[in-house]
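Subgroup meeting minutes
Present: P.N., E.W., G.H.
Scribe: E.W.

1. P.N. recapped why we're keeping a running log of single-chain structure predictions: easier to compare across weeks, and new members can see raw inputs and outputs side by side.
2. G.H. added today's entry (213 aa).
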Amino acid sequence: MKRSLVYRWLFFLVGLIVLALGFTMTIKGSKLGIGPWDVLHVGLYLNFGLTIGTWSVIAGFALIASTALFTRKIPQIGTFLNMLLVGIFIDIFNFLIPDIHTLVGQILILSAGIVVSGYGVGLYVSPKIGAGPRDSLMMMLVEKTGLSISVVRAGIEVSVALLGWLLGGPVGVGTIAVALLTGRIVQVSLPQFEKLLVTLIGEKEKVPPILKI
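Output recorded in log:
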């Protein structure tokens, strides 16, 4: 059991760091547009200061509080860690990765960022330690409305992208690419990491449906 927990937490924590790296890479390609949620975070940053990562944390906390209020359930510890670590590492990577000004460079880093973030999602979701604040909101709305995940996800992302655009966040072809391609990459990466995790922890210690902490 201890071996299982070690690998699961390792996958979860490394996955969040990889996810933050992918987000930051897409932000560095902002001339082409960035992911819907990051459009909002950047728009808030442009208008109110602080940092992009800080706004990611603030938005995540607001989503956690709202979801907990409506569901009357205490979120898992993984949800809180997702909120904090992704925001912190976005700021770290944003400091470390230089700005890119050429069109070719922007296209390359945006494309790479989409792939990296898609694999980051697969890595952090595979141990099933806890969904992120945005995914928790999505699942709550699916349960409350009876609509499909794709419809609810699209509605949320269009809404936050519009709000971010009104605040001055960068919307473009990259925003559409992130919205359309990330999910497809996760469909590939998630089974790969789930299979790897089961291999590492052993067949007798398969990953349970969810980790209750």
